Amino acid sequence: MIRKLIVAAFISISALSFAQKFSIIPSVGYAWRTAKTVPGLSREEEDYVKGLKSGMNFDISAYYQVNPILSVGIKYSNFSASSDGYILGYVNNMPVSVPVTTKDQINFFGPAVMISNFTEQTRHKMFVDVGLGVISYTTKTANVKGTGSNLGAELNLAYQYQITKNILIGPKLGLTAGTLNKMKINGVTYDFDEDQKEGLHRVSLSAAATFRF
């Protein structure tokens, strides 16, 4: 009798462990910042800023499945862009074009939840996830460095095709939102007026892979 109880307990524990699914979901793609460009720029300045509006997008999420459709976890994403160009400057009160290079980074990190059909008996999977956390921005031009952070959010919708029991791949559409009310530039904090806030919103299109275990 005791042996039967031990076997039954072992089977129950094994089944429970099997049901506790983990998902690691990395993705790589391209993203476009959607905030409006400051008006009044010259053509050269507009082209320069345009180069910072799009760039590489990387993100990775880790989820624990709490029921057949709901998972909870954490999410990290990174957007990077750079631009080389010329902006108008003055030397001895004479206008000149000054070569400049700017590198931008936008990072997001925070808890997230995911709804998926990963447990359904089909190779065609989908998931929607949403995260709420900290979004940060770093921009560097020559020896000038600006940083700032605020509350941010991410929303993703993806189709995944199951190529093996544990690996899925497919396209993913992402939305990121966040706005900076102030920034620290070379150690000095500047508060922005309503029409000068730094919008960090972007749309991304990526190739995503899901690894389940």
Task: Offer a quick outline of the entry.
With 213 residues, the chain is mainly beta. The protein is 12% helix and 66% strand.
Describe the protein's architecture and organization.
- By secondary structure, the protein is mainly β.
- The chain has a single domain, classed as Porin (Beta Barrel), CATH 2.40.160.20.
- The protein is 12% helix and 66% strand.
- Strands 1-2-3-4-5-6-7-11 form an 8-stranded antiparallel barrel.
- The chain is elongated, with a radius of gyration of 23 Å.
- The chain starts with a helix and ends with a strand.
- About 7% of the residues have low confidence.
- Keywords: Signal.
- It comes from Chryseobacterium takakiae.
- This is Outer membrane protein beta-barrel domain-containing protein.
Assign a percent range to the helix content. 10-25%
How many DSSP E strands? 11
The CATH class name reads Mainly Beta
N-to-C series of helices and strands = HEHEEEEEEEEEE
Largest sheet: 8 strands, antiparallel, barrel
Low confidence ranges: 4-17
Radius of gyration: 23 Å
CATH topology: Porin
Protein name: Outer membrane protein beta-barrel domain-containing protein
Keywords: Signal
Signal peptide: 1-19
Organism: Chryseobacterium takakiae
